Amino acid sequence: MDKKEIQRRRMMSYFIDAAKQIMDAEGLEFVSARKVADIAGYNSATIYNYFDNLDHLIFFASMKYVKEYVMDLPKYTKGVPNPVEKYLKIWECFCIHSFHNPKIYQLIFFNKFSTSLNDVVKQYYQIFPEELDEQEEELMPMLLEKNIYARDYAALQACAKQGFIQKEHIYEINEINLLMYQGMLQIILTQQLDYPLEEAVTRMLKYIKQVMKSYYLAK
């Protein structure tokens, strides 16, 4: 890696960390170019040498919150040999973290930058490679996929590969589970949930299990 690229990544990390600091202290909606620049110690115009716009920077900073999910994931999946059980454990960990931080997860997985998530994720982990240190090798393709549908699809492929579901059913399962998840996330986001978040996680897992059961191949 040349010095110019090292400098670029270092500068991006300054602005990402500054934006995350504001998000922690004040909230997502209070992030501004001026505040970020003040904390990072640079002119606000410098931000746009490294990010398309403020939303682009906020998207990168939001990935810092996904770090908690990524770091927690091995605790759920380690030692789980059955790919279907592992798939459910991935969902459990994801729901726990996303339901407690719905604005951030909505921004990352269901906004205008979400279609180019792959590029952002790759750049992000080039800047902060240590955040993937503890991950299982088989989960890496899922974590680096371009959007939430592709991530779930990658996890389901392992189930099909070992004969638990038919390959031709992956798309249907993928779509059903993610439509359910997006609906639950939206209910939480709009504060329409009339039961605890823990119950939302339990219900979501119950629904996903029912979907998997309906496509499950007896072995």
TrEMBL record:
Signal peptide (from-to): none
GO molecular function, one term: DNA binding
Annotated HTH tetR-type domain residues: 9-69
DNA-binding region: 32-51
Keyword Nucleotide-binding recorded: no
Top-level division of the source organism's lineage: Bacteria
Pfam families: TetR_N
Gene3D superfamilies (alphabetical): Tetracycline Repressor, domain 2
InterPro entries with a match to the protein in the record: Homeodomain-like_sf, HTH_TetR
Protein name: AcrR family transcriptional regulator
Annotated source species: Anaerosolibacter carboniphilus
Keywords of the record: DNA-binding
